[in-house]
Amino acid sequence: MTSPSHPAPVDPQLLQILVCPVTKTTLIYDRDHNELVSTAARLAFPIRDGIPIMLVSEARPLDEGEYPAKP
């Protein structure tokens, strides 16, 4: 069983092929928060038990200043 301090690992190959379901842009893996971040959509998708949950309804909006969008 995993805990928040020891999340299940995510397959690195999976991380390379996943894109944001909204913008189809690449994602940033935030190991500290166990999320995949889309700076373009300003959303963070949770990873639960090593499985990325790529549903907009499950994503959290990024706070202002969190992961500034690239120019």
Automatic annotation (TrEMBL):
SUPFAM superfamilies: Trm112p-like. Pfam families: Trm112p. Signal peptide: none annotated. GO terms for cellular component: cytosol. InterPro entries: Trm112-like (IPR005651). Belongs to the UPF0434 family. PANTHER family: PROTEIN PREY, MITOCHONDRIAL (PTHR33505:SF4), ZGC:162634 (PTHR33505). This is UPF0434 protein JGUZn3_10150. The lineage of its organism: Bacteria, Pseudomonadati, Pseudomonadota, Alphaproteobacteria, Acetobacterales.
